[in-house]
Predict the 3D structure of the following.
Amino acid sequence: MKLSARNQLSGTVKSINKGEAIANVVLDVAGQRLVASITVEAVDDLGLSEGAPVSAIIKASDVIIATDG
Amino acid sequence: MKLSARNQLSGTVKSINKGEAIANVVLDVAGQRLVASITVEAVDDLGLSEGAPVSAIIKASDVIIATDG
Amino acid sequence: MKLSARNQLSGTVKSINKGEAIANVVLDVAGQRLVASITVEAVDDLGLSEGAPVSAIIKASDVIIATDG
Amino acid sequence: MKLSARNQLSGTVKSINKGEAIANVVLDVAGQRLVASITVEAVDDLGLSEGAPVSAIIKASDVIIATDG
Amino acid sequence: MKLSARNQLSGTVKSINKGEAIANVVLDVAGQRLVASITVEAVDDLGLSEGAPVSAIIKASDVIIATDG
Amino acid sequence: MKLSARNQLSGTVKSINKGEAIANVVLDVAGQRLVASITVEAVDDLGLSEGAPVSAIIKASDVIIATDG
């Protein structure tokens, strides 16, 4: 599968904090911490668990740029 | 300023492709390519140019997770 | 590849309106019209053209519900 | 009311999984399953329940395109 | 029509900057400037022009909070 | 810090409804009610509580426009 989403970062699942509807999944992406809020259904469907290799996919229109200025 | 957005990655501007309303800004984040689609107004307002140090800010609810399965 | 995004609709490309940075891609999904705004880079990278079979992928957190009330 | 959002799909509520803050609402849209993550407040405000006719509204900039390639 | 989106702010169109695919529409919302990036198709479909009364609709999951800290 | 996000509205925290993973934070922005769904981690990290002065930050691509027509 090939995606129009321009940003696809490889990483590993570090922890999962499940609520009833949504779970926050913490990833390690090249030493940087990344958090994804996804449905609990998706966590179960993908069989996510600590240590699992995953990709973080982010549409270019969802990226904000910040400067120090 | 402190943000609720959980994901803030440091990088550098590599190139800017400006349209009339929207510009695609390509970043180098720890050796990985990241693209942000922002308004041309924001590019000008932040004074973005090649080589500029920036952060990419991404809300956790905008991150999709993918597995190979 | 398996995605956490809950919504994946099969369709066909009907037309592509390219700007400089962003393109609007019109899809036919089971007889319904769907529009996706993606980068021109993605259109080229995926080799999209009229008639191409594609999927529209939408994160559950990006869906708004409306009622008539 | 007329919306700039290009994608408005008619469907029916199939199930609602309520957490404390967010609920996942599963829709049937022309035989296809669609999930929307919305606030619990919105579920109550709209009086959503199984079988209710609704529309799923999705901004074009939130649609990712995928190909098999 | 009633929407699950929690944020609906009344305002007026101040200016429209049209590209080929996307237009940036500047609104005045209670004296505050608000910018919406929407498709050019939507600008035409809604017949937007300077001075037109409109609402800005924003899903709660798209709002980031910032503090000075 | 300067942000590409075009919309930054000053307000005050009115209430916080915490789930396990996500919290809905209600703001008063110039007399208007605004809701932000953010991670519980962010609520804690920013030390949000009733009465706290904050900004609501919204990317232009996340704003939908509605007319009465």
